């Protein structure tokens, strides 16, 4: 079997100017980054009124170690829609260097459902993440420089919340003491680094409607608090302008292609726990202007990814999605039913049926937003006909929803053609009536409770008086209209990662809240959330290199 | 008077493909980064045997607060050589973000002697520095990850020498304690960040002859020592391959243009104190293959910049320069003579004559390498005819060297035409007979002493027994053939920055030595050297932003 890298290398790429021409863009509308990558000049993008495309969200059941294939399904569906004559643009997040060198590998799809050139997309791409890191870290340097020169703004050095970022898995940077070495080397205080995708700059970058909105969001970002608990912002430090200068090029959406020749906009990549986990609004809107259909994905399972896509991204950007595709695999459903990982190769319809509760909850949830659903069953060779039939019957009988088997990983566009027809039929029927889960005006605490009960199946939330008072302070300061961004384990509807299937009656424990004033949401942390991953015992980096022909090897 | 940014903005840029065509390069030889920047594919570069260009080094007197204009002279001379019909390529270093947001501003020249597009060159450019930072920091993450997983290689956590880097002025990161927060968050130890230009990866990147050489240099890099003082390298940590993958694109030279339309290769930018301070060898060699003349510069005054260019870069790369241009200004020479900064506007021939000793020493020094010298007197409006005549007569009478007044800052290529004719005449005469200052086989201590006495005018060096024994250990380990890279103040021939003019009889105090096994030199630290600058009280960042037309403003 060929590796992803081999398949990508054998693909015959079109010049990116030709991919752009297929979208009605001319060479002058592009800023080329080599032969196969371009940024699209904002002046070339259709105005808001001309954005007529339909929006399809690809989401998934709760992830298991068996894997689902959300990114490959997004790419395969996009390729297949183009194959059946629907002009489709795929919108994805940019990969982070951290997982590339760690455990998970890149994020450019796999098999015959990949975006290319995969090495460049997985490594530095167009430098967007580096630009975001630089903007974030400039603000951090300005904070410590402000302390150094006398702290005119009166920041409490114990209450500085703005950390630094690096696009790397580096656990030793999680908790630091900075500013050591005496008076000439700064003011000692506790600090730390997050991975770049966890930066609030990343989240704001991805949610900003236009450059003016980005500048406003950067200005509002809170770096810390005074002793009286009043906030100090990037604007107070006169740094948001320089951050904008650093982000000016990065903010233009990136155009690449799939190995099937579909256009793909790959732009932005916020964390899916402390941020909202979707590609940039500007790229999605560009896709809606340039294509008839946009296929996009959101991080993690639908309880986290789709919820945030719908309640944060679509709400803030005024987007109205037309269809949701929920990706499942027979293997993962069997794990939700209780099968151990090493027994996944054997047919087990009964346990699969138990695991369908997870899929069912996600379908129900997405329907609460007024969206029609198609289930994509990403095919593995070990799947049996009886197992697929159990999934199909469950979806049809319980929810009136079609479950379509697809094999884009092995067969590219042809393998997702049935799925494409099913999605196209839903779009043509026009049955979507999108509504967010809760109104802007609902109190913050009730927003958290609504997501917990309506989406997670929880009986209630648990939150102590100190956090309640913190939330009340944010409401008093005018942040009560913001949506909530809940960070919890992706492996379960509950806060307990070992609770597979569709648990209910549990209580969601709120451990911490953080105001992301620039991103425009309240982060609600429930359980252990790590914003700086570590490398494994044998990092992927050990096997990455350059071969004798000068090609990058070892990326997956 | 127009600002640098205004002049740059008004320049009519040619498509970079046209600039490349002037060098015989076709569109397929380029990897475009937008319309005005390209990387040159190594396959398109002339082979070593076909590199027939003449090499001109632009260096300077010891810098003063009055300024010299080495970069503008390099650009102006290149433009003027092209104007008089000599096919010339300019080779410069890439700017760092640190000074852009700090005090000094960018490094793309000034006035009518600039490289463009200045905003992009000064900000992220083609991402080379970000790639170098990522490669450097991946190795750092692998070091701490190795400690975390049990430290099989037996690194002494107190003797880890590999720090982290960021392309930012951020003094609070100079000295840190990393790995805090308990066993899950790493192993606590002292660490710190340098600015990216001070990375050994940067130095190796700039000295590597080809990609295989770069990989070998990365493999040799020492990250720290065991308790028995044996070294642990990047190869031991199996990280050099992944570092190469991160550097693959960055290693291709960047092509831009001057506002006069000359081709400029802007690639790499190592610190001029703990590293050698010149652009990449691959860019210089590319220029020598593509043009008839390459004009390049080295950091700081000739005692540091030219010495390292000649004894490190030319020695390692086998380059043989044909002419040196020493840049001086009447104002700076007056400061060397003792005039205070606020009295520089008044004619003062006598003090100027005293300051000429600094210029004279630099001319003598460069001649020791067998190079013919031309002095460029970078014109300021306050300079008087009598002052210029004093410089001209001094150079002619003492050294048989021509001093040429030039005004490229105000007048572009036309302002440096006389200088171009003088340099062309030197090149046509072919009198250069380059030889490095010392032989590879000279013991390391004698190499340090040779530079100190021959170039700095010192009577001797002062070095304690501990450092002598450290140097002996390096020689025993096989590093005795390396050149030395001396880090001392750029403001004086001595280690005392206040000693202007041409002091002699002083003693050079060696405070520390560091083996840069990958870069391929022994760093010899004499005096206070800061590898992570801080921001000033009012950083330039406060005035940088985006105007209503979407243009970046405030960069200088």
TrEMBL record, chains A, B:
Pathway given in the UniProt record: One-carbon metabolism; tetrahydrofolate interconversion
GO molecular function: ATP binding; formate-tetrahydrofolate ligase activity
Catalytic activity from the UniProt record: (6S)-5,6,7,8-tetrahydrofolate + formate + ATP = (6R)-10-formyltetrahydrofolate + ADP + phosphate
GO annotation, biological process: tetrahydrofolate interconversion
Signal peptide (UniProt feature, chain positions): none
Top-level division of the source organism's lineage: Bacteria
Keywords, comma-separated and alphabetical: ATP-binding, Ligase, Nucleotide-binding, One-carbon metabolism
Binding-site residues, ATP: 64-71
Keyword Nucleotide-binding found: yes
Keyword tRNA processing: no
Documented EC number(s): 6.3.4.3
PROSITE patterns linked to this entry: FTHFS_1, FTHFS_2
Similarity section: Belongs to the formate--tetrahydrofolate ligase family.
Protein name: Formate--tetrahydrofolate ligase
Species: Segnochrobactrum spirostomi
Lineage: Bacteria, Pseudomonadati, Pseudomonadota, Alphaproteobacteria, Hyphomicrobiales
Originating gene: fhs
């Amino acid at each position: 079997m060929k590796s992803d890298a081999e398949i990508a290398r054998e693909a015959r790429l079109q010049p990116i100017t030709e991919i752009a021409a297929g979208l009605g863009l001319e060479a002058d509308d592009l800023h080329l980054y080599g032969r196969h990558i371009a940024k699209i000049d904002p002046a070339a993008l259709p105005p808001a009124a001309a954005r007529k495309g339909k929006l399809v969200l690809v989401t998934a059941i709760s992830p298991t170690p068996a894997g689902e294939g959300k990114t490959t399904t997004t790419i395969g569906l996009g390729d297949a829609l183009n194959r059946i004559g629907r002009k489709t643009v795929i919108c994805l997040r940019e990969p982070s260097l951290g997982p590339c060198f760690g455990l998970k590998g890149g994020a450019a799809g796999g098999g015959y459902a990949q975006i290319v050139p995969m090495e460049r997309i997985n490594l530095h791409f167009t430098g967007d993440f580096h630009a975001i890191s630089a903007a974030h870290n400039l603000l951090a340097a300005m904070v410590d420089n402000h302390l150094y020169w006398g702290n005119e703004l009166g920041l409490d050095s114990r209450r500085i919340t703005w950390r630094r970022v690096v696009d790397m898995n580096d656990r030793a940077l999680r908790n630091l003491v900075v500013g050591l070495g005496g008076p000439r080397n700064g003011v000692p205080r506790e600090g730390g680094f997050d991975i770049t995708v966890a930066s609030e700059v990343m989240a704001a970058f991805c949610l900003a409607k236009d450059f003016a909105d980005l500048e406003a969001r950067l200005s509002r970002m809170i770096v810390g608090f005074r002793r009286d608990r009043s906030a100090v912002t990037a604007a107070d430090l006169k740094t948001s302008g320089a951050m904008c200068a650093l982000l000016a090029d990065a903010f233009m959406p990136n155009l690449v292609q799939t190995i099937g020749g579909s256009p793909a906009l790959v732009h932005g990549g916020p964390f899916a726990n402390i941020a909202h986990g979707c590609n940039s609004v500007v790229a999605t809107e560009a896709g809606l202007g340039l294509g008839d259909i946009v296929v996009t994905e959101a991080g993690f399972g639908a309880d986290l990814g789709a919820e945030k896509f719908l309640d944060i991204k679509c709400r803030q950007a005024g987007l109205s999605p037309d269809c949701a595709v929920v990706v499942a695999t027979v293997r993962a459903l069997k794990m939700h039913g209780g099968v151990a990982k090493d027994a996944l190769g054997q047919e087990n319809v009964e346990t699969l049926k138990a695991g369908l509760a997870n899929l069912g909850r996600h379908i129900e949830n997405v329907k609460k937003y007024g969206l029609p659903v198609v289930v994509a069953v990403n095919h593995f060779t070990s799947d049996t006909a009886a197992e697929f039939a159990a999934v199909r019957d469950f979806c049809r009988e319980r929810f009136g929803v079609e479950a379509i088997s697809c094999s884009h990983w092995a067969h590219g566009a042809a393998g997702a053609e049935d799925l494409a027809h099913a999605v196209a039929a839903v779009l043509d029927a026009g049955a979507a009536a999108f509504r967010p889960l809760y109104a802007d005006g609902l109190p913050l605490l009730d927003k958290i409770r609504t997501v917990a009960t309506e989406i997670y199946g929880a009986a209630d939330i648990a939150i102590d008086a100190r956090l309640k008072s913190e939330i009340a302070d944010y409401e008093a300061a005018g942040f009560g209209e913001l949506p909530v961004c809940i960070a919890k384990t992706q492996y379960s509807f509950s806060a307990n990662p070992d609770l597979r299937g569709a648990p209910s009656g549990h209580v969601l424990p709120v451990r911490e809240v953080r105001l992301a004033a620039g991103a425009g949401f309240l982060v609600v942390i429930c359980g252990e959330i790590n914003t700086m991953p570590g490398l494994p015992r044998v990092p992927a980096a050990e096997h990455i290199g350059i071969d004798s022909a000068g090609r990058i090897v070892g990326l997956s």
